[in-house]
Amino acid sequence: MGTDTPSACPRLEPGVTLLRRPREGRHALHRLVTAELTRRSGSAYWVDSRNDAVTHALYEHAQSRRTLRGLRIARAFTAYQHHELVSSLPGRVSSRTALVVVPQLPALYRDPDVPDGEARTLFDSATTILDALAESLSIPVLVTAREGTDDQFTDALVETADRTVECRDTREGVAFTGEDVQTLVYHHRGYWQTTIPYWVELLGVAPEEDLSHVGPTTVPTLDAVAAEGW
């Protein structure tokens, strides 16, 4: 099981949240999903495409096997299958549902075997269903789009989403940014790494004339704290 803690990831509020991620940033999705399932009880539904539902990645980031007990995954390989699965959600989802996940929502509708006009009709229908579920049942719906794939489908998804969260890989881990979203602490095995905005939020900003005496500080590891008997 993983060592991630829910506090390392932004909370998903009711509504449609669009996660924008780099091509290599797949595990940011798994971290967000498992963190949210740790916070919430109830069933969760994942409509997959392009093999984003990687089992070992979900278990790597989950706090325990119990975290994923209510998660149901269905995988589509064509735009028609994807639309059918999304259309089936209203018969499954309720106000007690913890989360709906639809990664790479536009991907299959871009496939050349779907006529352009029909692809857009199916896509618009799918996004309308997801938006209606999020609004009528007040549940979080998480969708994703890749960087570098901006087109009519991504533009429509941005318009549909209630909020957008960006993620990027850093030396310390995945950083999330967005409206009212900022990664302030990076959790690692046995210790955690803070950022300057974390301390500003915790302590406020000291007057400039009082900074001359401030020296470097370190955050003790859990091992060091344990050794001191805290």
From TrEMBL:
Protein species of origin: Haloferax profundi
Domain of life, per lineage: Archaea
Cross-referenced InterPro entries: P-loop_NTPase
Record-given protein name: DNA recombination and repair protein Rad51-like C-terminal domain-containing protein
Gene3D superfamilies, sorted: P-loop containing nucleotide triphosphate hydrolases (3.40.50.300)
